[in-house]
Amino acid sequence: MARLVSVATFKDPRLQAGIDVRTNPTQAAAHWLRRDIVRGVFEPLERLKVEQLTKFYNVGHSPVREAILLVSASGLVVHEHQKGYRVAGISSTDYADLIDIYQRTYHLALTMAVERGDEDWEERVVLALHRSMKIRKVMTDAEPEDRELWQYAYKNLHNEILSGCGSPLLMGIVGDLGDRAERYVNLCADMATDRERDSHAEHRVIVDAIVAGDVDHLNVLLDRFFETGEPMRVSIRASLAALENKPRRRRAGSAATQSTAA
User: Fold this and answer.
1) 3, 114, 124, 173: which has the highest count of C-beta atoms within 10 A?
2) Side-chain-side CA neighbours of residue 222 (13 Å)
3) Which class is 92-242 in CATH?
4) How distant is the alpha carbon of residue 121 from its chain centre?
């Protein structure tokens, strides 16, 4: 099976987060590296070598070094003393902790958003919902750019929903945890468990509750939203258990040595 292509090769401008690599190569490289780790272009525990990444992303050494440091703050990259940086590993223990804290912090941010959000926030949420419903849900890597467009729409809607909390600190925490949870989906999930799920309909009723200002009903809907994703989480836990019971084998090589972003 061929390696996934880098997000740096995608043509839709929405997938570049509004960053111009010519004027801000560090932010561009950080965005590409973060998304490529989440998407599975780089494998768990893969060594991140500056020289290889400069060729992979076609940017300078300094932007790559700074990008690695930026992404390491998210928990997607770890530093080993005297060995440099690696992609963070995965484990059943980490996944269980991650999902628990992600759901708790999401509930907190959503409750604060309803308490603090104003009409401008509600309008942004409704607009984000409208835009997301125009994007086709894609649950296969056979269409990598379309898959990333769906992830972009999904993440943008949830970011707008939580933005009403008014806390950049909390938004950063939930965002980092969400990216780490998404990475587990991309690496370990049985996508068939989620393919028939009507995410657009689930989002619509959540946004309706937001506009109505019904916090209690909103929390019930959020619990139901998380519960609907449980079959996928079961498949992730099963994949992790199988990996942890499997003898380790030497990896064939890194993404950066096998392909180069356009």
Assistant:
1) 114
2) 22
3) mainly alpha
4) 23
